[in-house]
Write a structure and sequence with these properties.
Blueprint lengths: L6 E5 L4 H5 L2 H10 L4 E6 L4 H4 L7 E4 H6 L2 H5 L4 E4 L4 H9 L4 E5 L5 H4 L2 E3 L10 H6 L13 H6 L13 E5 L11 H13 L3 E4 L3 H10 L3 H4 L2 E3 L6 H9 L3 E5 L2 H8 L3 E5 L8 H4 L6 E4 L15 H4 L3 H11 L1
Parallel strand pairs: 1-2, 1-4, 2-3, 4-5, 5-6, 7-8, 7-10, 8-9, 10-11, 11-12
Helix pairs in contact: 10-17
Length: 324
């Protein structure tokens, strides 16, 4: 199938990690439809991440389109792919007369607003999130499977060519979106790395910084780490990460940013599906995953994760020092 598609919109309006794992779709589309203009519709705060990909011609701000629906008409799009279900944008895409409106069949409103439904289950699948995303390209004639190395190649993100600073970034919090390595372990890891002459920097939102200080008031006084929480815009954070030797975090946005920027990325994952590395591992050439090789349901309904807690700071420090 070779469709005439001068313009395609990829719609993913959720968080940074999910957006990062959607970026390869744009590279895949450019491979099969090299003359097609690709726009990425997302939330404003994700724009600096989305614009990193050379395969994306334009960023579309979701809020701007909702406030001025006629904007969607001006793009004359041939297709819109709802990687993340969005009822409001789906309704506008129908009104705008976009020919191919693609979404999962597992959202009831897609049955009324999309005309190309793809039937698959994310929850029960053993595939990675980035691989599952590619299934939504089937109505465009792209029906093959993609391996991890291929997907990494479709990011289209330029690596920073300068020499990295002698620092490791710790990003302990995740706004509750992932199972976190205990803060006391980050504290001990920071001490271990600092003793080896590594500059340790902690990033996160201002609220996450306040949470760290509330949970462990002595963290920044006694760990050797410097507090950068609440200091960066997303664009500044991306630059700070790519100019570092490594980043340590759980399954959250900065982990994926580090991975696609090609720096050493150290991520913690539970062994509970569908939160495990098989579904959400960061994709990159220098990714190191801390996860037990087991299928565990013991921590499924708890915030604390014994599997992640089992990784001792000394072991993590050795892996980091041997990698950077």
């Amino acid at each position: 199938m070779n469709l005439h598609l001068p313009h395609i919109i990829i719609s993913r309006t959720d968080n940074l990690g999910d957006v990062a794992l959607t970026l390869p779709l744009c590279g895949i589309i450019k491979k099969y439809y090299p003359d097609t203009k690709v726009s990425f519709l997302g939330k404003a705060y994700t724009k600096p991440l989305i614009e990193l990909s050379e395969h994306i011609d334009e960023f579309l701000d979701r809020d701007e389109i909702l406030s001025n629906p006629s904007l969607l008409d001006t793009y004359k799009s041939g297709a819109i792919v709802f990687v993340f279900p969005d009822k409001e944008i789906a309704k506008l895409s129908l009104k705008a007369g976009i020919k191919y409106r693609i979404g999962t069949s597992h959202r009831w409103f897609h049955w009324f607003m999309c005309n190309k439904l793809v039937n698959f289950s994310r929850r029960d699948s053993s595939l990675h999130e980035a691989q599952l995303n590619t299934k939504l390209l089937a109505p465009l004639g792209i029906k093959r499977s993609f391996g991890f190395e291929e997907l990494i190649g479709f990011y289209g993100i330029k690596k920073w060519e300068g020499l990295p600073e002698n620092r490791v970034v710790l990003h302990p919090k995740s706004k509750g979106s992932a199972r976190e390595w205990p803060l006391k372990n980050y504290f001990l890891l920071s001490q271990l790395l600092s003793k080896q002459g590594i500059k340790v920097c902690v990033t996160g939102t201002e609220a996450e910084g306040d949470k760290i200080k509330a949970e462990m008031p002595q963290f920044f006084d006694d760990s050797g780490a410097k507090d950068y929480t609440g200091k960066f815009t997303l664009q500044e954070l991306i630059a700070f990460i790519e100019q570092s030797k490594g980043l340590v975090a759980c399954s959250t946005g900065p982990l994926h940013i580090a991975a696609i920027k090609g720096i050493n990325t150290f991520g913690f994952y539970p062994s509970v599906r569908p939160m495990d590395k098989g579904r959400w591992a960061a994709l990159g050439e220098r990714v190191h995953i801390f996860a037990l090789e087991k299928n565990c349901n013991e921590c499924k309904n708890t915030i604390q994760c014994a599997c992640i807690q089992s990784f001792e700071p000394e072991k993590v420090a050795r892996v980091i020092l041997n990698s950077i």
